[in-house]
Amino acid sequence: MEAFRNFLNKYTSIPENEWQQIWSAFEMKKFRKNEMILSEGQICRFFYFMELGMIRFFINNDGEEITKFFTVAPYCFTSKESFRNQKPATENIQALENIVAWQINLGQANKLLKLKSWESFTRKFMHEVQTYTEELLLESKTQTAEQRYFNLQQKYPELINKIPLKHLASFLGIAPQSLSRIRNRNK
Amino acid sequence: MEAFRNFLNKYTSIPENEWQQIWSAFEMKKFRKNEMILSEGQICRFFYFMELGMIRFFINNDGEEITKFFTVAPYCFTSKESFRNQKPATENIQALENIVAWQINLGQANKLLKLKSWESFTRKFMHEVQTYTEELLLESKTQTAEQRYFNLQQKYPELINKIPLKHLASFLGIAPQSLSRIRNRNK
Asked: What is the interface pTM, i.e. ipTM, of the complex?
């Protein structure tokens, strides 16, 4: 859990007694590479801190899988609408590598919100996710798939080669063949 | 301010004493149609509740204005990153109609966060904005400009004709001529 404490400290300072409560609430959970962490129609029961690994969020669109986001450890994730309202998810979450994560359920998450440090962390974390989502949306309006591929490469230089080509292509909104051509042009 | 109280009540219940504090903190502000509420490079000093009117967020991209979002009253808005960190904005906000709004500065907003009702409202509001942004991102990956135009038309049937064609086209990521063709095909 030290990785989690370090992660939280980047957002807000956590007094020792509050850290003890956070620490007690989370349980460890592992997922194997390619395992589905959440499938469309299931209720997302947990909010996760991912200590190791990488996941993708995707939806099914007329039989085609469209990747919405990649999330890379150390980071937190959940299927927000499903988790907050405990209703069936409209998206899927899949492990792209072996995952070590820590989880809490909604009741525990709501209890933790009474801690000043946890409330502050979740608020700042939400702002960060919102800013990132807006950036992606703006990139989709202003940049070519090739530019967006280079952004991703710059941001996650070591990880981009671990993501299967088809997922990367659907995230960029292009055919896998087009992504191969972009990669070959820039070897 | 009754419109604001009704708006907040959709998210969370506001005890009378907390409403009094919220009410005291906000000041009225009007903007004329086409007026710039915020220009790139300025610091966004306020968080707004827009009681009447409609605005657009846009950026300059190589001399071209790209519309990111439209926001329609009654709703809250700010340039989040600029407001929270009091640093120069990377986006512009423009009134598309005459606006009646209510504003608070960052110090006041932080004070209000100590109220349970205001903290709850801002958290739920942020979730709603995040969900909407994710929806737009997903639509940009899965739908044609024509489909996205119809979504907008369904969501804001009375307002869509008030938005200048060029702003609507840049929001959809297409040329104004292409949007004209979509409109003419569906008359």
From this structure: 0.88
